[in-house]
Amino acid sequence: MRGFKSIEESDMIFMPDPETLAIMPWVTDEKQKSAIILGDVYEAYGGKELSVVDQRSYVAKSIRRLHS
Fold first, then answer.
1. CA-to-CA distance for 34 and 48, rounded, in angstroms?
2. Alpha helix (H) ranges present in the chain?
3. Could you tell me which of 46, 49, 39 has the C-alpha nearest to residue 19?
4. Could you say which DSSP state residue 30 is in?
5. Can you give the pLDDT of all 68 residues of the chain as single tens digits?
6. Which end of the chain, N or C, is less surrounded by CB atoms within 10 Å?
7. What is the pLDDT of residue 20?
8. In sequence order, what are the beta bridge partners of 14?
9. CA–CA distance from 17 to each of 22, 40, 41, 56 (Å)?
């Protein structure tokens, strides 16, 4: 994301969530099968901190705040 961080700090890691894997049912041609998977985005440096640009972590943090 241009302007968010310097190029040296901009690497991110995508960690897919296997429970969200879904095959697209409307694609019937075996050669064209497609799937979608959701996951979390982590900062590459440190690897344990969810990225502030990750919508799933933003929603999860908001829900936690609502329940606290």
1. 30
2. 55-67
3. 39
4. G
5. 455 666 666 678 888 999 999 988 888 888 888 899 988 888 877 667 777 777 777 787 788 888 88
6. C
7. 92
8. 41
9. 11, 7, 11, 11
Q: Which two tokens stand for residue 6?
A: 């310097």
Q: What is the pLDDT of residue 7?
A: 67
Q: Tell me the β-bridge partners of 39.
A: 16
Residue 67 corresponds to which tokens in the numbers above?
């329940």
C-alpha–C-alpha distance, residues 12 and 3, integer Å? 15
Buried b (16+ CB within 10 A) or exposed e, 39-60: ebbbbeeeeeebbeebeebeee
Structure tokens at 25: 């049912």
